[in-house]
Amino acid sequence: MAKTENANLAEHRRVLKYENGKVYFSAKAERKLFFVLTLAMLLYGALAKLGIV
Fold it and tell me: What is the pTM of this model?
């Protein structure tokens, strides 16, 4: 029974899950991903405004 509980915990801790041709993110991973993408867009916008990009 302990092995089943450990398997369930490992399943819940997964950041990415690939199933039926789709990739699923955990909520925490999704927040981190979009935060990083937001920072990248902010940086790109600032560099574009300065004429560097």
Answer: 0.64
